[in-house]
Design brief:
It is built from no helices and 11 strands. By secondary structure, it is mainly beta. The strands form 2 sheets. Strands 2, 4, 5, 6, 9, 10 and 11 form a 7-stranded mixed β-sheet that branches. A hairpin with a 6-residue loop joins strand 5 (46-52) and strand 6. The radius of gyration is 14 Å and the shape is globular.
Length: 128
Amino acid sequence: QVQLVESGGDLVQPGGSLRLSCAQSGRTSDVFATAWFRQVPGKEREGVSAILHGRNPQRYYSSSVRGRFTISRDNVKKMVYLQMNNLRSEDTAVYYCATGTESMTIAGTLDPESYDSWGQGTQVTVSS
């Protein structure tokens, strides 16, 4: 089991930036991929970005954030980050960090069904 704690959510103006952090503990050596998801009330959880934990960490992004968000990880600190630039009002959501321990397809990297450990979420609000 992997324990996850997100931080970094805040209120920011449109066009601004935030960096979310996901602190990982427990059986982190079993992690195959870490992903960020987001959810607004009344909507399904949406995959935002994912990073694999192999030697060559491949990264994946949803079309709605590609070019604006960057996912990265620090193996020594056991942290995964989501740098969010040029934020828009439609980015407002609760953001969740999740880890999966089983291999997955490319499409599966942004599917919540592929992940078995979740953090408690951090609120991001983009508003003027």
